[in-house]
Amino acid sequence: MTVARSLLLFVLAALAEIGGxxxxxxxxxxxxxxxxxGAGFVALGLYGLVATLQPNADFGRILAAYGGVFVAGSLGxxxxxxxxxxxxxxxxxxxxxxxxxxxxxYAPRG
Length: 110
Description:
The chain is mostly helical. The protein has one domain (about 1-105). It is about 80% helix and about 0% strand. The chain contains 4 helices and no strands. It has helices at about 1-30, 35-50, 60-80, 90-105. The relative contact order is 0.14.
C-alpha cells in the first residue's frame, strides 16, 4: 500500500506542478492574463504541499525521484494538452527517468 500511495502522490504532484507551470506559461507567453498566472501559482503551491505527503521523509530522495516523474509527466502533458508528438528518443529518455524513480525510491536498502 505504501508504494501505491507514493506513486499516486507522485502523479498528483506532477499534475499540480506541470499544470501550474502550464497555466503560468499560458498567462505570460500566450497573454491570457493575470488570472491564469495566479491559478498557476496556486497549483505550484499545491505541488509543494503534495510532495510533503510522501511516506518517505528524505527530502532529497523525494525531489530527486520526482524529477523523473516530472520528465515523463511533462511529455505526457504536452501530448494531451498541446498536441506535442514525442519522438522515440523522448520516449526512451522518459523510460530511463522512470526507471530511475523506481531505483531511487523503491530499491531495497539495508
